Amino acid sequence: PPPNNSLVSSNDVEGTKVYDAEGNAIGSIDRLMIDQTSGKVVYALVNFGGVLTAGHNHYPLPWSALRYDAEANSYSTNVTDQQLQNAPHFSGDSLDSRVWEQHVHIHFEASPYWVSRPEG
Length: 120
Prior knowledge:
By secondary structure, the chain is of the alpha+beta class. The protein is 16% helix and 28% strand. It has a six-stranded mixed β-sheet with strand order 4-3-2-1-6-5.
């Protein structure tokens, strides 16, 4: 693909490293959660290890809480260990609850995917 191509296969994203704001490796993306209606990626299920384990091995982070670093071919986030420790409880049916999703996006200071933003 051309070097400026922003399209990527989900297979290429899975396993990509995630770093905290200080540049420490904190985990990797296990899989993506996609909104069936819009087709947008809304969560990255991150496999945490090292610094941010906080009792959560896997946790869905809002996609808007991650930033892609093309130079390092990785993602970074400002999510802290404290935020993970105090994150809303996650269970298999959490993603079926808009209330849970609202709490998660507020907690991680991430833009909700269901709120449309003006183009531009």
